[in-house]
Specification:
alpha/beta; globular; 463 residues; Rossmann fold; 2 domains; 3-stranded antiparallel beta sheet; 15 helices; 10-stranded mixed beta sheet; single chain
Length: 463
């Protein structure tokens, strides 16, 4: 009945929303003599806030139409190049009148954790100038008819294995948060079966590889409740009129409730500030708030089998770090990974995946050579800041670019200093991944470490 009550609530509030719309028209119409008064601004701000908190937020668009390569503006065309019932593989293809240099392919595996892939719009925009970017666009489970079958963690890994094979060994993979575990599993399976077709590198960002290390409140709740509690309390069936009618799902509105409850004071304060911005006529500040929450409030349902298997495998039983994880009765052996370079990125203030949880991948991937491993901790950022925002753009992304470019050297791509995306004082030509980890530049910066040319908030470690 949980989903039905949610839909009933939306239906019951429609008359109030219609009245609010009429009120906004009344206070905005130029023939109203009170339209430009403080009373009108106050009423409009209240009505606007009511409309936003009761709205259904649909999937946003990426809306990326241009980027810059070598200082020139290049048009971007978003196209779907691979499809499955629960996933579309998007390619942000560059179009230009001049020749665009060949760039290393980068697949951004977006989290299937309640938000749409567009949550990583900023990540895509930052990586586009220097990479041929692809993105996994997961489909809302309530829109997938039950005739297409189940979708669990094993199916997720199947999709990744197929996509990695489809794109070939020049591929670089960036897994943001939740996908870190299935990406590791998929690459281990390919490494065992087709070692010459494995991705060139993988970057794991804020991922729950071993949630026993520095557990956060999210991790503690999962262990304390156990998977059966989640099965009894948070799983519902999709109601009519959705295409996925009768599919068992973990509703997106429950995930959003969980997200917001973690920082409720911050969200309440943000909406109070929005009200004040609207009253004061500060359109720029109000628009920034609305842009963020248009994305944040847009959520999707997850299939029940995927959600429960992920909770049990990753957060309750910790099967991957214990060496017990299986994919369709086959043991996931991370020691099979030898050729794929590994970069892990963590945020100092991450309250979702604590510091050390992602770094654990280095201890598990025993056969990746040390010169092909790198770990990076960004001070002063939380979970969201690991893959989005100013510090991601200015401090984290350059590290990822260096790592990818050096991992691409055997495929004949341009050296890092010839790439357009790094336009700050940390631009250094690096000969190998090993030198990048040791902080030594190839030339022009003798006897200096890369870290000394970076802000003091950057930590880089040799594994």
């Amino acid at each position: 009945m949980l989903y039905e009550l949610y839909e009933l609530n939306h239906a019951a509030i429609k008359p109030a929303r219609a009245a609010a719309d009429m009120g906004r028209i009344f206070w905005q119409t130029p023939i109203n003599p009170l339209a430009r008064t403080q009373i009108a601004r106050n009423c409009l701000a209240r009505l606007h806030l009511f409309e936003r908190v009761t709205r259904r937020y649909e999937r946003p668009e990426f809306g990326i139409t241009t980027t810059k390569v070598d200082g020139r503006e290049v048009c971007i065309e978003e196209e779907c190049i691979w499809q499955a019932p629960f996933c579309n593989l998007l390619h942000f293809r560059k179009q230009s009148d001049h020749v665009v240099p060949e760039q290393p392919p980068l697949l951004i595996v977006t989290p299937m954790s309640g938000h749409y892939s567009t949550l990583l719009r900023g990540t895509v925009e930052v990586m586009l100038p220097d990479h041929d970017v692809y993105v996994t666009d997961w489909v809302d489970a309530r829109q997938v008819p039950v005739v297409f079958g189940d979708f669990d963690l094993d199916t997720y890994i199947d999709y990744l294995v197929e996509i990695f094979g489809f794109m070939g060994p020049e591929l670089h993979v960036m897994a943001v948060c939740q996908p870190s575990v299935p990406v590791l599993a998929a690459i281990s399976l390919i490494s065992a079966d087709r070692p010459d077709n494995v991705p060139a590198s993988m970057t794991l960002m804020g991922g729950p590889i071993d949630t026993r290390k520095n557990p956060t409140d999210v991790n503690k709740v999962a262990v304390a409740k156990g998977v059966n509690w989640f099965r009894r309390n948070v799983i519902a069936k999709v109601p009519l009129p959705y295409s996925g009618f009768m599919r068992r799902v973990y509703p997106g509105f429950l995930q959003l409730t969980g997200f917001m409850s973690m920082n409720m004071d911050r969200h309440i304060r943000a909406h109070k500030e929005l009200f004040l911005h609207l009253v004061e006529g500060d359109g720029d500040s109000a628009q920034k708030h609305m842009d963020f929450y248009d994305e944040y409030m847009s959520v999707m349902d997850l299939t029940a089998e995927f959600y429960l298997q992920t909770v049990e495998t990753v957060f309750v039983e910790h099967l991957l770090p214990r060496g017990l994880m299986k994919h369709r009765d086959r043991h996931v052996d991370l020691s099979a990974i030898r050729k794929t370079a590994l970069l892990t990125v963590e945020g100092e203030n991450d309250d979702i995946s604590g510091v050390g949880q992602t770094r654990a991948a280095h201890d598990l991937c025993l056969n990746i050579p040390d010169e092909n491993k790198m770990h990076y901790v960004q001070n002063g950022v939380g979970h969201y800041g690991v893959f989005n925002g100013r510090r991601f753009q200015n401090e984290i992304a350059p590290v990822i670019r260096r790592f990818i470019q050096n991992s691409s050297s055997r495929f004949g791509y341009k050296p890092f200093n010839a790439v357009s995306g790094l336009n700050d004082n940390r631009q250094v030509e690096i000969k190998s991944i090993k030198e990048a980890m040791q902080g030594k530049s190839q030339k022009n910066v003798p006897n200096k470490k890369v870290e000394t040319r970076s802000p003091p908030c950057i930590k880089q470690e040799k594994i």
